[in-house]
Amino acid sequence: MAESEPGEASIGAKADETTTPDKAAPRAGEATNTAGKQDERRRRAHSARDEAEEYSGASAPQMPLPTWKRRLFIDRPADLLAFVAEAKDARVLAIDTEFIETPYRRPTDPSHKLTLLQFAFDNDYRASYVVDALRLADLSPLQEILGRAETLKLFHDTSADKRVLATRGLVARQTLDLEAVSRSLFGGRASGLQAMLLRATGVRMDKSLQRADWGKRPLTSAMVAYAARDAEMTYTLYLWLKTNYPDQVARYIVPASAVSPDIASWLLASLEGGRSYTVEDALEDAGLTDDLNAQEAALRQALGVLRNPQQRAKVLRFIGDLALTALAPDVRPYLASSSAEERSGAARTLGKLRDKEAVEPLKLLITDPTPDVRQATTNALTAIASGEPPRLPYRRGWGRLAQTVAHRNESDSGTSGVAPDSRWTDASRQRVWTSESAPDEAPGAAPDDWRAALRARFGGKDAEGQAPEDPN
Q1: 205-211 long-range contacts, CB within 8 A, separation 24+
Q2: Are 125 and 245 in the same domain?
Q3: pLDDT, tens only, 4-24
Q4: Which among 3, 13, 128, 425 is placed 20 to 30 Å from 75, CA to CA?
Q5: Are residues 215 and 316 both part of a single domain?
Q6: In this predicted model, what pLDDT tens digit does every residue of 247-275 receive, in sequence order?
Q7: Are residues 329 and 197 in the same domain?
Q8: Is the pTM of this model over 0.85?
């Protein structure tokens, strides 16, 4: 195992260096002064925006930043086996990954390639580890510790890390997403690792190598130290959250024995699917697009069964997206949830449903400490006050339009027993103009009709085969 140089392991970012322009040249100084004023106005605007978006509640006391004695680089199979032997009894294992995009690939190849795996665990800060996933063709020994149910695996934003691990056949069990925990406490704008480390320890992370080329070899000692530090800081953040917010941490642990929740299959597909597979897609595949009773029953059951706040927040969003106003009473209690993610989700949904009975509970959230909740509440109250009806989902709205058109056609043909709607009479129906040489099917247009002007301009002919005169 290679050890990175201690001198490259600094955590604090260097202060921004500012340069004073040379004011000897009047024109340059004048231009600099104007630019300086613009920069100052921009800085004040950003400061006001940041203040509005900051978490306004109290935070737990900060903790000292721990220091790891060594950072070990692993690029040989024997060293990988030695690391697995040392970490197999760990109770907590922090994991981070670095990967690169693979622009030239076959359709079946993954879009990203794993380049580094970083680990920190409860070994009294003796060492953290960086595994070179490009040099090591076989990473399967790591599955022994990743699949161990007795070891809690820590991630900060699980989704990307789990996807890229899967490309090498690695699956983590018994996991905890610290980004989700942070988001539930302080909102999405303050849930990043850098922001959370600043909150927990008062130390600002140096992100200067965030966009480094992690596929390039050899790695510098600074890059190894930077990569190892992300795993170390993930472990540090866990210690702070576990000490001060144990209940929220416990709610977000995904146990190794977790099974799929007992909910409707189409809803489960929506929860587990990506952004490209919407809840409307799932309903259409299940043939339930117009079955509101089935939708309401499934979503009501899911709210009672699911325990993970992330999943419940998704269900709340589905209720709003599907405009299921009958479920508004089931949504209102989540305005008082301990999870900011659920409070903001409930506020957005009630706004989409135009639920007037939620106005008073929503007003209590205007001063919520979490900026996400405050913004969602403001938008919800505005939507409710607009007096507009809930917006129907696309497919259901399109189905209603199709029914209206069918009813119109029946009325016109006299088969429905209902008088034709004046909006759909021949005189007011939309006519379609075409550039084809065949005459239009629509009745002839008035001389001042725009279609006549187009025909005259481009040499077209009307229904009688005559070229009308240009009304202009």
Answers
A1: 205/11, 205/13, 205/229, 205/233, 206/10, 206/11, 206/12, 206/13, 206/14, 207/13, 208/13
A2: yes
A3: 543 333 333 333 333 333 333
A4: 13
A5: no
A6: 999 999 999 988 889 999 999 999 987 77
A7: no
A8: no
